[in-house]
Amino acid sequence: MRNAGLPEPSGPQESGQGPHGGDPLDRDVWRLRSRACWDDAAALLAPRAAAEPGPALHRTAVLVERCMFTGEGWGAAEDSLRAAEALATDDEERGAAACERGHLAYASTLLGVRDRADEARAALGRAAALLTPRSPTRPLLDFRRGLIAQHLSDNPSDATAAFQRAHAGAAAHGHRLLLSFTWRHVAAMAEHDGKLAEARHGFAESLRIREELGYLVGIAPALASLAAVVGEEAEAVRLRAEAARLVRLLGGVPGWLAERLGLGALGQAAGA
Questions:
Q1: Is 267 inside a domain boundary?
Q2: Domain that includes residue 217, residue range
Q3: Whole-angstrom distance, CA of residue 105 vs CA of residue 145
Q4: Is residue 231 part of a domain?
């Protein structure tokens, strides 16, 4: 499957993960995160993350996202996750932390750092047991279970079902950033099945949301995916050229896309 190598992140909550969050700190973190300045974003969260479960998990998500885009920073992400797990006080917080552990283990496996597939599945299973059906974290959990079915278990039917549940949940909870991911992966499954019109629609919706949110670091992958199914060579060339421009702007992030676009090593991302 063409998208099997797309290591993309998504955060544990929507609060502050867009340009219109209510907390000034969250807005500042979002601006840094969306421009690939993950270390700076994590530093802003560090004081509150030392004592509060929510900021601790948010900081962990930022650092895991850095791992997914750069293949670096695993130790910092693991340390942050352990701290977030220690601060969790109820089932919602423990379930969200388990969901993040599953995602970190999945990322390590997908990127070939260390095979942690069993840990990923166990952690997401634990999250499913802790989170209520109406939990705002449940759509993210469904999405990540879909990633494991798609990329680690090679089970397209289970992946499609999980992505569809996540998509419906993200829409219901107003989680727009997550919705951009679910659109993207629902589209990837449609592409896998040869349903190119559905794939084009899904990739275009994912791109639209990312542009509206200002999620700069995620726009280039969306452009590249749309280019692969757009059908018109001139438009595909334009989309790939724009994706390459953004990757260069961010210093070669994401690395896997820089390689695919033939850009070679472009150095560190800003703030990384």
A1: yes
A2: 203-272
A3: 12
A4: yes
Residue 261 located in a structural domain: yes
pTM of the model: 0.89
- pLDDT tens-digit readout, 99-136: 999 999 999 999 999 999 999 999 999 999 999 999 99
8 A C-beta contact, residue 217 and residue 271: no
Q: How many domains are contained in the chain? A: 1
Residue 170 domain-assigned (yes or no): no
